[in-house]
Amino acid sequence: RDGDCLARIGGDELALVAPGAGSESAQRLAGALRAAGARVDAGDGPVSLTVSWAVYPEDGLDRYSLMRKLDRDLHAIKDA
């Protein structure tokens, strides 16, 4: 969408900022990103993406609390 921004934030971590997207849209975007990764063959098979999302203000009121929520979710997903 116009206005969305995908950026590398470090290492193998990316952030997609989608202004105005609520929780349902964030879930759809996460599913679309995982599906897109699964279509990429990096030589060893499809790419696996671990995806989490945070929505302002429900999940945090500033970038630090939003990033903490994302970090906790990503670690929980990877540990499962």
Task: Tell me about this structure.
The chain is α+β, with helices and mostly antiparallel strands. The chain is built from two helices and two strands. A hairpin with a 2-residue loop joins β1 (5-10) and β2. It is globular. The chain starts with a strand and ends with a helix. The mean pLDDT is 91.
Q: What is the average of the pLDDT values?
A: 91
Catalogue the unreliable spans.
none
**SSE arrangement, N to C:** EEHH
Q: Rough shape?
A: globular
Q: Whole-number radius of gyration?
A: 13 Å
Major sheet summary line: 2 strands, antiparallel
Query: For the terminal residues, how far apart are their CA atoms?
Result: 32 Å
How many β strands by DSSP?
2
Percent strand: 5-15%
Report a brief summary of the structure.
The N and C termini lie far apart (32 Å). Helices cover 41% and strands 14% of the residues.
Defining traits:
80 residues, 2 helices, 2 strands, globular
Give the helices and strands, then pairings.
Elements: E1 5-10, E2 13-17, H1 23-38, H2 63-79
Antiparallel strand pairs: 1-2
